[in-house]
Structure prediction request, 340 residues.
Amino acid sequence: MGFPKEIYDRASAVLSERRQYAKEQTLVRRQQIYSLLPQIEQIDKQLSQIGMKTIQAVAGAPDELDKILERLKQQSLGLQKQREDLLTAAGLMEIYHDDNHACKKCKDTGYVGTKKCECFQKLLREAAFDSLGAVYPQNCRFSNFSLDYYSAQTAPNGINPREKMAQIKNFCIEYARNFSMGSHALGKHQPPSESLLFMGNTGLGKTHLSLAIAGEVINKGYGVVYGSAQNLLAKLEKEKFQFSYQQEEEQSYLSLVLDCDLLILDDLGTEFLSQFVTSTIYNIINTRLLEGKPTIISTNLSFQDISKRYTDRLASRLFGGYIQFEFVGRDIRIQSKIMG
Prediction:
């Protein structure tokens, strides 16, 4: 599973615009060259006529077809030689043959053979980053996750907020750096990355670190689906009850959520609760655990809250299959405004 369909569509649209631009620029430059060297335009017209004659000859399959094709070939080669000599003398050879494509490897198609070109991969990553920015506009990176907002004083319960959050941040950095969907290399099995559960009050950095991980994972070429529980589940419910036959030909949003390389479900517990929502959340958690697909869930709820709000079965899967992190401290968004 790579990127969601909307990400592919966005990147493909950029490639389409590049191809159209290259075509338009090529026509403009050709006209400029023709105005300087009218002979080139005449030669190109003759070469086009030879091409048509070749197609007609093959389609008609006349007697002595080989001789006809050889004669047309020689005429074409002679005209091409004249054109090259004229262009070289005028210093316009490179400009004439420049196809104006942004990527010379794939000609802005996005593929070299059957493999995605580097330019397409770059566009996919950029589109994915833009998508994350659209749903959560802050620029969330590990480098700007400041520990200064967490108290360095050890609390009566023995927890030092700054030290604990430094440990969580370092874990997230390593998690993103070593993110894997599982592989077999040199005879060794590398298991997929674990699923993570970020717990704690509002404003302690759960979303920031989730998106910092997402950015690094996207940069490694993996497909990430991010969404708040409220928005994502509302979209899934709308999709279920507004199903159309047209959707059968496309990948449903639920399949994207279940199949993506990394799913980030933010603010679990803020969604409107219904039987559909409860069963869908369980389906997402259970399916991805069974298939070894990493998920990061953040929530303000405690274990007791989750068991009460949903079901013991869902809570069991969540707390039994996820690595849990308790975020501590005071709301850093409020502190940043005071300190700023």
User: Anything to note?
Assistant: The beta strands are 111-112, 115-116, 183-185, 188-190, 195-199, 224-228, 262-268, 295-299, 322-326. The radius of gyration is 29 Å. The first helix runs from residue 5 to 36. The chain has two domains: 5-112, 136-339.
